[in-house]
Amino acid sequence: MSTALDSNILNALLRREATAPQIAALLGQLQQTQGLTICPVVYAELLAGPSATPDLLKSFLTSTGIILDEHLPLSIWEAAGKAYGDYALRRKQSGGGLPRRLLADFVVGAHAFQTCTRLVTLDPQHYRLGFPTLDVITL
Q: Distance between CA 46 and CA 69 in Å, rounded?
């Protein structure tokens, strides 16, 4: 099993944000023990970044040893839909109104929950609520 990565972790690293050295150190440790994985949703979100191209992203993934898990079985989509539906209901019942999170976040969480041992993210709250037994790591 490997460690799943949320796009916000990789965006912070690629943009050399203030937390980039901490992120690089953490990912280096995790890479040595388990390996690192992203799902196609994270890949697509990274491609949406300024000046990102498939060639640049593929080169980055290769150089860092991060694996793109292109296979998302129906069970991941079902878990994501269920978690998103539960989130939307919690939000409505709390008086928060319509959902503010994207379904894509729940696909990332479902992928991490079903195929990896943990998820590294900068935004842990909705993953912890949507997938309470998922090991979520944040800085």
A: 15
Query: Residue 131 carries which DSSP code?
Result: S
Give the tens place of pLDDT for each residue, 81-105. 999 999 888 888 877 766 677 889 9
Judge contact between 2 and 116, C-beta under 8 A. yes
The parent domain of residue 32 ranges over 2-137
Count structural domains, the chain. Answer: 1
CATH number at residue 46: 3.40.50.1010
pLDDT digits (tens, 9 = 90+) for 25-50: 999 999 988 899 999 999 999 999 88
- For 11, residues 6+ apart whose C-beta sits below 8 A from its C-beta are 45, 46, 49
